Amino acid sequence: MRKGLFFLFCLTVLYISKANADCQFYYVGFISQAPLKERTSDARKEIKNLIDTIRDCSKSRDVSTEVQQLNDLEDTFPHLIPVSDKQISLWQIRGFRAEAQAGEKKITSLAEETKVPPDLINVYKENARKGHILKAHVDNFIEATSKIEQQTSQKLAARCAPPIDLRNDLLGEVRDQDDVGWCYAFAAADLISYKLGKKISAIDVALTYNEHKIEEYSKDYIDPDAFAKKERAKLSQLDAGGIGEALSSARSIKLCLESEFSSEDNGLSELRTNLDLIHDYKKQQKSCCGLDHALKALFPSTNLSSLLDVVQSSSDSDLWKNLKEKACHRVDASSFTVESFGRDSLIEFLVKGNKDLMDKLQEQLSLKNPVGASINGPILETIDRPDPPVTTFEGHAVVILGRRLDPITGECTFLVRNSWGRSCKRYDPALIPSCENGNVWLPESILKRGLVGVSYLH
Amino acid sequence: MSAIFTNLILSMLLCSYALAETEQCVSGQIRSLEFGKLIYEKSSYCFNSQHNELISKNCFKSTCVATQSIKPFDIVKLNSVTGNPGFKLCRVLGGQPRIIEFSDDTNWFKLDQCTFNEDHSFVDTGTLTFLVRKKTPSDTK
Questions:
Q1: What is the span of the domain harbouring residue A227?
Q2: Which of A67, A406, A457, B72 is 20 to 30 A removed from A188 (C-alpha atoms)?
């Protein structure tokens, strides 16, 4: 509900700002069919509104839509138009000129950041022609834009140098988070693994991050009323989190290795099912549902009978702590400090942008330090929505392991280690031009649309 | 009638497209970790040169449940914080996803698999996403 209101607020803010920026379009309303007196009266009102709109809005935008409607009305009510065709034509030319001028600003602004799409240039040229702007001016502008683009290209190339690729054998192949919403934990585990030189269990990072919630979850079962409610909380429903917070909580304990506490060994079951199965068993005290299998799946290198002993002897609240104690050698990650920067809300992201986050990302990559990135997930999918609206904002976490200049586009691209497995076919090649076994090379222009946070370790 | 015919043609096209980039079909083995144990299954399948696309052989030049189950779906709806969207898509279409490894000669390659019980046909979830995207009108993608 809060999320819904938040989006509504964002959309309202966007709508208001757009309405203020653009002179609103006017569309002719209903004109009654009879009697003639009323019809004429309606038409006169509509013509006045149209002319007012054309006159006022031509200062800031194309008014062809209104002019066309006025022409249609003129066919039916030829004597009601109080201004000359010439005046209308002048206003229309002024509208095209305003569009061309706005186009110049947009093109210049874009050229300072990336290559300008040819379509945008063509639209500008057409508006300039219809706005009777001198051809010499248009040619000069196009030439100046080209120079800015070249400078931008050189600047971007410098920012993207040297090329970095931090993939290594320890991190191994791209992980697969399965059905569980712990992308942030997979990202945090990769960052810690890179620093420690040991592959850390993502599931351990997630459970540590959710420790206080797990305690709450355990209480549900102590409370008979809560237990009776079928919609009670499930351990595996503890989806979503932040990379920075997960890194911070992981520093406070000693961690399991991936080989000791497996995040991807779920067979035909799901990670969430295995977790719930173990937790539910403890709470319900029923021997069922393949507890042995679930324990072996999650703790493949530990003797089963000793795990069962732990389950039997542990209290509700220390079950997972004791299981990890039994299964893991516990690696210390406390020597690292966590740096985390981001936007606390969508509005803050929309208002402030993310230039500082992009700079941090580049800075850390130059130091050969992998960066955890909080992004708007749909930027990985939405080829047909170049600017995902705020309503499609879905948080996702990945690790950025490198950068290189795309020789074709001249744009910096970032090596994104996702946690959706080795497949590349899930990504649209028109959006993501290069993918290597699940490692995605994401163009800077796409990443900038959705980067809302960066986290890394020192 | 024409709608059925169109769907049939589209399904066949989708199926052929899926296989256009695959380069090799073999009778091999698929193994998965199931509750701590490696389970091996004999299977026939096709894959691409990078070994990151996989489709069962009964889908090759033929219709199978895995490719027939493809239907338009707004993939963006799956792109949330709640896991690998390919796994979710598989379940939405009636399949069962899991992480597997498949063999090519003596080498093993890790991928995932969305299996349809009716005829045991399968496809990796990335290819599944690709096929659904192809079939989904652009205004609903």
A1: 183-332
A2: A406
Q: What is the pLDDT of residues A187-198, one digit of tens each?
A: 999 999 999 999
pLDDT tens digits, A416-425: 999 988 888 8
Mutate to test the interface with B, among A426, A428, A452 (most CBs of B within 10 A): A426
Question: Does residue A166 fall inside a structural domain?
Answer: no
Mean per-residue pLDDT of chain A? 82
Query: What percent of chain B stands above pLDDT 90?
Result: 36
Using the beta-carbon criterion (under 8 Å), do A267 and B34 form an inter-chain contact? Answer: yes
Tokens at B3, concatenated: 């709608």
Q: In total, how many domains does chain A have?
A: 3
Q: Is there a contact between A423 and B79 if contact means CB atoms under 8 Å apart? A: no
Q: Which of A332, A358, A385 is the last residue of a domain?
A: A332
> Of how many residues is chain B composed?
141
A432: domain CATH number? 3.90.70.10
Q: What residue in A sits closest to B50 (Cα-Cα)?
A: A437
* Rounded CA separation A96/A132 (Å): 8
Of the candidates A192, A195, A196, A190, which has an alpha carbon nearest to the alpha carbon of residue A171?
Answer: A190
A303 with A373, same domain?
no
* Placement of tokens 């979710």 in the chain: B88
Q: Which of A332, A354, A374 marks a domain boundary?
A: A332
Q: Given this model, what pLDDT does residue A454 score?
A: 96
For residues B103 and A426, which has the higher predicted lDDT (pLDDT)?
B103
DSSP secondary structure of A17-44: HHHHHSPPP--------S-HHHHHHHHH
Measured CA to CA in angstroms, residue A54 lies from A58, A65, A458, B50, B66 at distances of 6, 9, 60, 60, 57
| Chain B residue numbers touching A266 (CB-CB < 8 A) | 33, 98-99
List the single range of A65-74, A177-186, A236-245 with lowest mean pLDDT: A236-245
* Pairwise pLDDT comparison (B67 vs B42), residue with the higher score: B42
Pairwise CA distance, residues A171 & A190, whole Å:
7
Q: Residue A293: what are its φ and ψ, rounded to 5°?
A: -60, -45
d(CA A235, CA A154): 51
> Do A301 and A392 fall into the same domain?
no
Q: Which of A22-26, A376-380, A454-458 has the highest mean pLDDT?
A: A454-458
